Amino acid sequence: MGEKKLVNLTVDDGVAIIIIDNPPLNVLNKEVVACLNSCLEEIEKDKTIVSVVVTGTGERAFMAGADIKEFLELNAPGEAAELSNNNHWVFSRLADLPQPTIAALNGLAYGGGCELTLCCDLRVAEEDVKIALPEINLGLFPGGGGTQRLSRLIGSSRAKEMMFFGEPLGAQEALKLGLVNKVVSKGEALNKSVELAKKLTTKAGKALQAIKQAVDQGTEQSIANGLTLEIKLFDNVFQTEDVKEGVNAFLEKRGANFKHR
Ligand SMILES: C/C=C/C(=O)SCCNC(=O)CCNC(=O)[C@H](O)C(C)(C)COP(=O)(O)OP(=O)(O)OC[C@H]1O[C@@H](n2cnc3c(N)ncnc32)[C@H](O)[C@@H]1OP(=O)(O)O
């Protein structure tokens, strides 16, 4: 009997679903990081994938953060940096996927769990979900990208407040801050996220990827350089068959049938 996989990947009709399965709270340990990495490798190779959903099993946690038990093994200088680096490597691999990604928060997202959701483009949270960066309570602070991605998403002061106090945000508060995009009822995060991911498969895939690239790369530069990038991507997308199909469909008053490639 093969070893239980701690992260499972399914791909169906252009939608990839990554499910973290490390009960009871889906903590991020070395095995989960390694499994997540291989799922991302498969997704990078599969050109049929238009959108990606990430979620956890169970109804308590999307992910309760890094496995604190593993911290006991980190003694010599540099070992914590190696752990942080490994997490960054996988998290950035998720963040750098060209396709739109959606985190389906089936439960709490604490620490590395919150940081993992920040590597997705959208976040759908169930109404009772709590989101926190509580590392300060361990005498630590977020080492999986939270200081950088959260501050860019909700603003420096709100991000510092979350990290200084380590207190959880409820789903509605997170929605108000723009930390989550949609709040759904208990048990509905995955369904709603897959529904959104499927909706994206009816759009032009190259245009979706150009939006993500223009925003993610453009906002890291001056607005002048960002606009130059937008022009370049606009021209690239304009060469695709999908634009011809989109324009003809509009003029012929019919639905467009985009090819996603
Ligand atoms: C780069 C990334 C860094 C990080 O992510 S640092 C870690 C950040 N995360 C945290 O600090 C969260 C710590 N956990 C908690 O605060 C609580 O737990 C929860 C709020 C998540 C859930 O509380 P409740 O429902 O009362 O469950 P419970 O009894 O506290 O936990 C159930 C079992 O799960 C273990 N556990 C919980 N979180 C972690 C974790 N992050 N790493 C390792 N184990 C964890 C506990 O110890 C316990 O275990 P047992 O049943 O054997 O006593």
UniProtKB/TrEMBL annotation:
<dbReference type="GO" id="GO:0018812">
    <property type="term" value="F:3-hydroxyacyl-CoA dehydratase activity"/>
</dbReference>
<comment type="subunit">
    <text>Homotetramer.</text>
</comment>
<dbReference type="GO" id="GO:0006635">
    <property type="term" value="P:fatty acid beta-oxidation"/>
</dbReference>
<comment type="pathway">
    <text>Lipid metabolism; butanoate metabolism.</text>
</comment>
<dbReference type="InterPro" id="IPR014748">
    <property type="entry name" value="Enoyl-CoA_hydra_C"/>
</dbReference>
<comment type="similarity">
    <text>Belongs to the enoyl-CoA hydratase/isomerase family.</text>
</comment>
<dbReference type="Pfam" id="PF00378">
    <property type="entry name" value="ECH_1"/>
</dbReference>
<dbReference type="InterPro" id="IPR018376">
    <property type="entry name" value="Enoyl-CoA_hyd/isom_CS"/>
</dbReference>
<dbReference type="InterPro" id="IPR029045">
    <property type="entry name" value="ClpP/crotonase-like_dom_sf"/>
</dbReference>
<dbReference type="InterPro" id="IPR001753">
    <property type="entry name" value="Enoyl-CoA_hydra/iso"/>
</dbReference>
<keyword id="KW-0456">Lyase</keyword>
<protein>
    <recommendedName>
        <fullName>short-chain-enoyl-CoA hydratase</fullName>
        <ecNumber>4.2.1.150</ecNumber>
    </recommendedName>
</protein>
